[in-house]
Amino acid sequence: MKKKIIVFTGGGSAGHVTPNIAIIKEMDTSHWDINYIGSKQGIEKDLIHHLHLPYYGISSGKLRRYIDFENVKDVFRVVKGCFQARRVLKRLKPNLVFSKGGFVSVPVIIAAKSLKIPIFIHESDMTPGLANKISQRFATKIFTSFAETKKFFPERKTKVIGSPIRKEILMGSAEKGRAFLNFNKQLPILIIMGGSLGAKRINEAIRESLGKLNKAYQIVHLCGKGNIDNKLLDIPGYRQYEYINEELPDILATTDLVITRGGSNAIFEFLALKIPMIIIPLTKEQSRGDQILNAKSFEEKGYSITLLEENLTSVTLSQSLDKLKHNRDQFIKNMNVSGHGDALQVIINEIKKQG
């Protein structure tokens, strides 16, 4: 039987790639030939490389919301990327293009539309990113993580499904996690995740508060590349890591509370794992404000507490943790009735229909 062909696209940040990877890992490779189009040097190239898939790098520009001379240059880069993507798609003749957004996806979507190839897109955040705002007019189907996002897209082709969660993240062993960390069962485990690059202000607040936090929690601090503090290596019950990959599911299986940024993929994973969270979103100066809206939505639903970075001190951090710990059972109860289904399986089923 001849295989169907699918092309995934999305990049610029890990958040635009990891949901694609979750979907790719569940695809039946006996029926599907899987390909990826991304930028020539973006993070997606490195992440997809580990999956040993055909990868096609194209020219792409950055989509900016402000006036900059680079915008003029990037128009030409996007146009060039459209022609490059079109050549790839014309040769592959895919049955479907699936996009997770990011600036590299725009040339691919435009090229796919010109070749009459069906297009699925998924928007993770509360408000659509610029790439998906542009892409929505070309899309065959649109999926969103948040119910609030649906109003930004055409009703007839939009479906709220939640975020596709990596299955391996749900299959950790608490016993293995405690053994890896060498933690006891007497104190709860708190994990701090500031993203792949860490978060300077969060790292500082945690370390300023260590004297008090260490009495109440055993702490796993994922502080980002180059952010290990050698002076704190020997503190009992405090583990620092730049990044954890293979052991992460096991560590999360034994985690009681989490402090995190407000990236959609991460917070939906914690929701699926029923781990109450303090969300410290990126500020509007650092982002377009999407993490603030994500955090607000989760707080309103009773899944988390929001602590704005501009209000972050050792005192406010301690107060928020006390509140989260004291009401942990209620947060978990709210998460248990969240109503979020298996977004990953929904997408797989929709892809099968298209094939």
Reconstruct the topology from this structure.
Elements: E1 4-9, H1 18-26, E2 32-39, H2 43-49, E3 55-58, H3 69-92, E4 96-99, H4 105-114, E5 119-123, H5 130-135, E6 141-144, E7 158-160, H6 174-181, E8 189-193, H7 200-208, H8 210-216, E9 218-222, E10 238-241, H9 248-253, E11 257-260, H10 264-273, E12 277-279, H11 290-300, E13 304-306, H12 314-326, H13 328-336, H14 343-354
Parallel strand pairs: 1-2, 1-4, 2-3, 4-5, 5-6, 6-7, 8-9, 8-11, 9-10, 11-12, 12-13
Helix pairs in contact: 3-4
Structural key phrases:
40% helix; 14 helices; Rossmann fold; elongated; 355 residues
For the record, the count of structural domains works out to 2
Overall pLDDT confidence? 91
Number of strands: 13
Taken from the alpha-carbon principal axes, the silhouette is: elongated
Structural class comes to alpha/beta
Helix content: 25-40%
Task: Measure the end-to-end span.
Answer: 13 Å
Share in β-strands: 15-25%
Low-confidence stretches: none
Order of helices and strands: EHEHEHEHEHEEHEHHEEHEHEHEHHH
Cross-sheet strand order for the largest sheet: 3-2-1-4-5-6-7
CATH class label of the largest domain = Alpha Beta
CATH superfamily of the largest domain: Glycogen Phosphorylase B
Q: What's the architecture of the largest domain, going by CATH?
A: 3-Layer(aba) Sandwich
By DSSP (H or I, 4+ residues per run), the number of helices equals: 14
Radius of gyration: 21 Å
Largest sheet descriptor: 7 strands, parallel
**Could you name the CATH topology of the largest domain?**
Rossmann fold
Membrane topology: Peripheral membrane protein
GO cellular component, one term: plasma membrane
Subcellular location: Cell membrane
Family: Belongs to the glycosyltransferase 28 family. MurG subfamily.
